[in-house]
Amino acid sequence: MASERLQKVMAEAGVASRRKSETLITAGNVTVNGKQIKTLGTKVDNDDHIEVNGIPLQREKLVYLLFYKPRGVISSVKDEKKRKTVMSYFPDVQQRIYPVGRLDYDTSGILLMTNDGQLANKLTHPKYKFEKTYVAKVEGIPTNDQMEKLRHGVRIDKKVTAPAKTKVISTDLNKKTAVVEITIHEGRNHQVKKMFDKISHPVIKLKREKYGFLTLDGLQSGEWRSLKLNEVTRLLKR
């Protein structure tokens, strides 16, 4: 994992708040590999030995979980409206995990859960162009011209979306609906729904089926699994 600021590591380990951790550092109460540190912003690595007031800091083990989020669940650690959140599915996980990015309340599918802030920031940063594939059931049957608009980008929220990969999987002429696959690498608010609204085919149901190379294979809605070592390695190397 990449280096992190000392005060951030201390806060994540539960030593104190980040501000209080900064006070401990500037007061000379923290050592890294036996050397007293008083400079804020000092970076530390996973292998560094940190002590606070002579007591070794126990760093939290990094965990990486792949979760099949059901519909009707909030993708956050807590919800002010007391709705069910993804955290209710991880009662036995000791680490302080959180979702990487978000899935809408009424959207199901693949969601990563971790306590690795560096990786979470990397996967959600636009410059890394991490692909996410969705399957949407939409009203009406999109034409080739409409699908081409999505491939080139449409203007939503005063900004044109990046080119998307799209294909029609199936159509139902009787119900006048279609199932469409779309792959994007942006993460704008309600983006997929807004894109289909733009071509006049509102989303009825939405599921995220792939997150980069990761899929939901072997999981049922509400289930999760730990990522394999080679999967974590691939994510970290991006």
Q: What can you see in these coordinates?
A:
The protein is α+β, with helices and mostly antiparallel strands and 238 residues long. The chain folds into 3 domains: 4-56, Structural Genomics Hypothetical 15.5 Kd Protein In mrcA-pckA Intergenic Region, Chain A (Roll); 64-126 and 214-237, Pseudouridine synthase I, catalytic domain, N-terminal subdomain (Alpha-Beta Plaits), CATH 3.30.70.580; 131-211, Alpha-L RNA-binding motif (Alpha-Beta Plaits, 2-Layer Sandwich). Helices cover 21% and strands 31% of the residues. It contains 6 helices and 17 strands. The strands form 4 sheets. Strands 7, 8, 9, 10, 13, 14, 15, 16 and 17 form a 9-stranded mixed beta sheet that branches. A 4-stranded antiparallel beta sheet has the order 3-2-5-6. Helix 1 (6-12) packs across helix 2 (18-26). The protein is elongated.
